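Working notes for the structural subgroup meeting. M.R. asked for a predicted model of this chain before we commit to crystallization trials. I am recording the input and output together here so anyone reviewing the notebook later can reproduce the run.

Input as submitted:
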Amino acid sequence: MRSDRIEIGLALVSLAIPIMASNILGVLDGLINAMWVGRCLGDAALAAASNVNTVVTFIFSTALGISTALTIQIAFCLGDGTTKDVAHVVRAAWTVFTLLGILTFAAGEGLCDELLRALEVPPESVYQAEEYLRWILASIPISYLFGMIIAALRGAGNAKTPFYFCLLSIGLDGAFNPLLIFGIGPIPHLGIKGAALATVLSQGIGLSALIVFLFLRGHFLCLPRENFVVRGGECKVAWELIRRGGPIGVELLSESLLAILMMSLVNKFGTHVTAAFGAVNQLWNCVMMPSMAVSLAAIAMTANSFGAGDWMRVKLITRLSVVCSLVSAGALLLVLELTGSRTFALFLPAHSPALAIADNINRLASWSCLASACCSALIGTPRAAGAVWGPFTISMGALVLRFVLAEALLRQFQVVGIWVSFPISGAIAVIGTIIYYRSTSWSSAEVCQKVSFAVTESVPSATNLTGDP
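Returned structure, recorded in token form:
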């Protein structure tokens, strides 16, 4: 048993580290934009970008849910040895994510003004927020396909390749930001619009390079042209990805909706509070990176173990993922508490009133990150088993409670009431998650049942979830 724990622990860490590194790069992308926008264009521009980032997170929710379903399905197929079925899943995924990206971009452009009005963006930030949002929407189809490839590779146990190409994309974003914001030589001064355009260009180049690399390697994600079009039977596969990923997407959508609602409450207290809240959110994203990486790695490994029928391994993976998530989040929260305003000064202008506000927000609300780390680790196992509505119900209840508490406490304690609602709702979510995990309802779910395929092709076998296939 001890040797099994060591083996699983090493496998979990080896898969989680490149996932965490990729996620950290994603956060760094946001930090790069926030630092350039906040320190060079001022509080109003940072408030605009913070509002837009909330909207973009909302838009990405559905795609992230389907990506999780894709990871689970590929890991399960490889776990029970049916590697031929992977080609059908991949073909359906390319179609689903391409169509979803185009539809999302079109809907976002049409509802841009309505989204910003719903957020109650401060008047001095409205124009910049609209400019930033309209340009950042152009990156949505690109990012969807990027995310799809990353999810599929992780399901096959390859987390290193996504990291390398995320590094390329983030590096380009950092280089493009000052060039496009300030303008150099023939490049015009674009202001906040340049920060969004830098994201579009860097994502596009990164995705193109990744696709070329996979084609040159003959990877199973890059199907031959004659086998690329979805066939009649594979429409069922596409539907299954949507059906299974949809509830996860709805859960993430609810979290994003809550973020928008909370931002609308924060916006009532002015630009400085909004900018402070935006800066704190960026750092909370950093705190959650290791635990989210562990959760994603655990989902892939658990789905693979379900495919192999190894329930003892599933339990060990879950326990180790909870421990790793809590330790990593707790350590980073301690660092953030000790550094305080010096860290927030990375995003906010020197001597800005927002610095003291950000320090207060962090002290009161950041401990809810521990609750989130615990919940994400525990709930990964039922998700890998295909039971998604139970986790959704728990999460939704905690989110509704958080907003209701924030609005109620707001009347008596003003803005402090918003910050206090975070740890209270987080504690309730942990209690609900533990009760649900210890029940038998999710384990009686239809565990990772695959769609039946009329298989005519084969793909390279890739059953190792601890390194590159």
